[in-house]
Every structure is written in C-alpha cells, then in structure tokens.
Amino acid sequence: MLTAYDFESGRLVEAELEEAPVMFCCEPDQNEKLFIQKQFNLGWHTMNSILDENELPRVENRNDKIVIICKHPLHIGVVDSHVEFRVTSLGAVIYEDRLLFIFNEEMSEEEFLRLYSAVHNIRDLLINVLHRTTLHFHEHLRAISLGMEQLEDKIESDKNSLTSMFTLGKSMTFYVNALNGNHTLIDRIYTIAGRLGFDSQQQEVLDDIRLDSAQCCQEAQVTLSLITRMTDARISIMGNDLNILMKRLTVFSLMVMPMNIIAGIGGMSEYTVFVGQMAGGEDKIPIWVSFGFLFLFFGLLGGLTYLLLKKLGLV
Question: Quick one: pLDDT at residue 267?
Fold first, then answer.
C-alpha cells in the first residue's frame, strides 16, 4: 500500500502521489516497487536491502540520494500463549526534496507518523520518526520489565514459566541487536549531519535522540542480563527439585532392595513348610503366623537400612 503526504502548518496532510514530498509504503507489490524505483531512482539491490528484515542498520550518502535503514519494533504478539517481541527493517530514502518510508510488514500509518513536534520539511519528519522509533523501543522495554515481574511471582509455582523466559530472552536478544544497530546508525547520522543537509537545530535534536538511544541500549542490555539470570535460577531450582526427587527414589529403592532379595530367596520353596520343618514339628505353622513374622522381619530390616543410610548422611 502506497500513500502520500504533504506539509501544512507543521503537520502532515494527504496529497497526490506524483507531487507529494512524503510517501509511506507498506508491503509493496510489484507495481508499487516499480513506481518507487522510478520516482526515487532506486536499484533492485537497494530495494531488496530495505525490505530485508535481517539487514543491518546503516546510512548511505550517495550523490543523488540518502538511504537509511534502521530497525523498528512491531506490535507485541502472542504465539502459543507466549509473548513475542519482534523487530523489522525500516527504510528511509531522501531523493531531491522527497522522502520515502518503506516497510515489509503491515503497520499503522497513524501510529508510525505520530508527530511529537511540528514538522516543516522532510528532515524534521525523519528526525521525528527516529525519535518515535526510539521511544517505541522504550515502551516495549517497560512492557518486558512488567512481564519479568509477573514471571518472578510464578517462578516457584508455574512450571511453564521457564518456556516463557526462554521466549522472552530470545526476543530480547533481537531487541539488543536492533537497538545497538540503531544507535550506531543515529550516531553516524549525527556525525555527518552537516553533509546530509541537517541544520544546527536539527543536529541538536539528533544529539538528544542519540542520548536516548544510548540509554535504551543500556536498559535493554540490563534487561537481557536479568532475564538470563532468572532463567539460570529457574533451571537451578528445577535441577535441585529433580535431585531431591531422585534422592528420595534412591533411598526408597535401597530400603526395598533387601526385602526383594530375601523374598526372592524365600520364594524358591513353600515358606510355611520350610519354617515348620525348621521348628522340628510335623505340622505346618499357620500361614498368618509365618507370614506375620516374615513381614515383621522385613519391616525391621527396612528400618535398620533407613537408620544406616541416615547415619551415613544419605537421607
């Protein structure tokens, strides 16, 4: 979808495509790609680089145009009941006195082009978009912090919290990479702002955005470190619970093992006849008496085994 805008009293209004200084393109089809290449003198390689979500943030100052590629956060999604934070590539092309924003993902124009200050030319709008992208990352980082607090409350009781932390950690890894790339890009734009046509006031705004971006990078790195530590703690707790369970099963097996051995030996012949002959009598001992003594003997043997293991510090 391709839409166009013009400047009017410090804000954006819709305009005709052929003459508009600002264009917004989301998920372009083949005809829109051809139109953009003709209007902004873009090659296929540059177009594919802008639409590649894995492209690294960068700025290219060519003879006839400026090409900027940065990372922009997408709406928070839920996959298999787990929250995911995704980023995509945003392309900005300045050609003569026209500015093009291009995405390869569906995005709301009203939200993307929300203005924090008056815009009178394409460079004011570009600064506003970079500022909006940085603040959008800040908002998502706050949402991640709230999610971490909820996971901390569930870390002891909810067994699925580990999967949620893995998903959150994966998202934060992409966020850290995207924020670091954006910060490098903004720092580069600030360094060559004069050659890119930014005036002194715009350079001051770029400097503020550069500081916000640096703080955002630090916050993301701290958040990723906390998620990693929470994940390690959850794994340690699960491992400790498993060790305790295996220890109890081992103790139980050791308590039962002598009984199984003796039961196997005694099961090779009729127990009541064997005990009767050992007693020296011709009659059999009543079964409830013989088996009663047998179970009592097994109980004493198991108790002695437990006391021995406890003394050895295995229980």
Answer: 65
